[in-house]
Design a protein that fits this description.
By secondary structure, the chain is mainly α. The longest helix is centred in the middle third of the chain and has 26 residues. The mean pLDDT is 85.
Length: 100
């Protein structure tokens, strides 16, 4: 019973925060859902497991770099050279892949 009350309370708290303008990640999640619906309706290949595997494979490197940058920013060390290094590494990687 207490779990039911806790879930209801947390949903009410979340709804009041959204009404107050603290939407957090909600616009990004809704935007992602809209993009999935639009591209899924435009192409029959978009919502296949192979395409999702391809998207996750391509996003893996960017995700690792972003997680590293978030860690640096959370510590309060604003280091702009990390973004520069990520860009240079990406450019070098593209050159190496195309010349293989």
């Amino acid at each position: 019973m207490s779990e039911q009350i806790t879930i209801e309370k947390s949903l009410r708290d979340w709804a009041s925060r959204v009404k107050a303008g603290q939407v957090g990640a909600l616009p990004a999640i809704l935007g992602l859902l809209v993009l999935c619906v639009v591209f899924g309706s435009m192409s029959s290949v978009f919502l296949t497991p192979g395409n999702f595997a391809n998207l996750l494979t391509q996003a893996a490197a960017v995700t690792v770099i972003a997680m590293g940058l978030v860690f640096v920013l959370l510590l309060g060390e604003i280091d702009l050279s990390a973004g520069y290094a990520a860009g240079v590494c990406g450019a070098v990687l593209v050159i190496l892949i195309t010349e293989m």
